[in-house]
Write a structure and sequence with these properties.
There is one protein chain. With 288 residues, the protein is of the alpha+beta class. It has two domains: 130 residues, Arc Repressor Mutant, subunit A (Orthogonal Bundle); 97 residues, 2-Layer Sandwich (Beta-Lactamase), CATH 3.30.450. The protein is 40% helix and 19% strand. It contains ten helices and nine strands. The protein has a five-stranded antiparallel beta sheet with strand order 6-5-9-8-7, with helices on one face. Helix 2 packs parallel to helix 5, helix 4 packs across helix 5 and helix 7 packs across helix 8. Bound molecules: zinc ion. Zinc ion binds next to helix 4, strand 4 and helix 5.
Length: 288
């Protein structure tokens, strides 16, 4: 265990502060962050298999959280296991999270702050994402790949050895592009994540995907589609009297009915269209 590091981390209450200190200690981390090695440096003494039905990850520590054991469900893919370990490490290092924890699948997707419990799960997720995909290098890699494509998200997921879902979430959080990801299973929305500039998504958890969307039609498991153009009203909330933007849609078909949909609004195209609409309107006014 690295005692100096532990001392410095003890003063940090938020995932962001913890990550700042951690990344300063390990300035030359490879993209595939060695989760278990670093966890061992900060007090995790063992990694074990969790055998409680319904749970994906867990933390067992002494009340002072000097030492801990991280548990993960048997049979998780390497990518999901890494993310779960990062999540539990977050619970271990954030002082207010207590010393024993069992986390379900929904907890590993949490990003709301409605209850204290949800807020803590969201913090553990922010920690895991920031730990496995450090912001400066992820932003650089994202930029080098160019304008958003669903294949880029897959490339990043391989590069950082995280699930496509985790890399898509991080992508939405950090991209300057106007895009969103919709995670669905068997035609039902699991949840959506939008970039900062993207309009408000119209669908909620548990609702069916829009009729006629490409995601419903595209069913080639293990592959991704080309872009399809669609009226924005299918995906986003449009205020009355406001012109709906055109949304470009691309989808990756994963196994077991899981799909990741990428929605993109091309700002430059939209400006051209608005200009054209304005011109057409002025002409019509003149002709009337
Ligand atoms: Zn948790």
């Amino acid at each position: 265990m690295n005692l100096d590091l532990r001392m410095d981390l003890a003063d940090c209450g938020s995932p962001e502060r913890l990550l700042e200190v951690l990344l300063r200690y390990y300035p030359d981390l490879p993209r595939r962050v060695p989760v278990e090695t670093i966890a061992a440096d900060v007090g995790i003494i063992e990694f074990k298999t969790l055998e409680v039905e319904g749970f994906i990850g867990g933390l067992l520590a002494d009340p002072e959280k000097n030492q801990g054991i991280i548990l993960t469900k048997d049979g998780l893919s390497a990518k999901r296991k890494r993310y779960t370990q990062g999540h539990e490490l977050g619970h271990f290092l954030i002082p207010s999270h207590g010393y024993q924890r069992q986390c379900r699948k929904e907890d590993l997707e949490e990003n709301s702050r409605t209850t204290t419990y949800q807020q803590q799960e969201a913090e553990a997720n922010r920690f895991s994402a920031g730990f496995l995909m450090p912001k400066p290098i992820f932003v650089k890699d994202m930029g080098a790949l160019g304008s958003v494509e669903v294949t880029h998200v897959r490339q990043l997921s391989d590069l950082y050895e995280v699930s496509m879902e985790a890399s898509a979430n991080r992508y939405a959080e950090l991209t300057p592009d106007n895009c969103a990801f919709i995670f669905s299973r068997d035609g039902i929305v699991r949840y959506g994540r939008a970039s900062r500039s993207f309009p408000r998504l119209a669908m909620r958890k548990g609702t069916p995907l829009p009729q006629n969307c490409l995601t419903r039609r595209f069913n080639q498991t293990g592959t991704h589609s080309a872009w399809a153009e669609q009226h924005g009203g299918a995906w986003i909330e449009i205020e009355t009297g406001v012109r709906a933007p055109t949304i470009l849609e691309q989808v990756v078909c994963q196994s077991n009915g899981f799909k990741v949909t990428l929605l993109y609004i091309d700002e430059a195209e939209e400006e051209d269209r608005e200009e054209y609409d304005g011109l057409a309107e002025r002409w019509n006014a003149r002709l009337r």
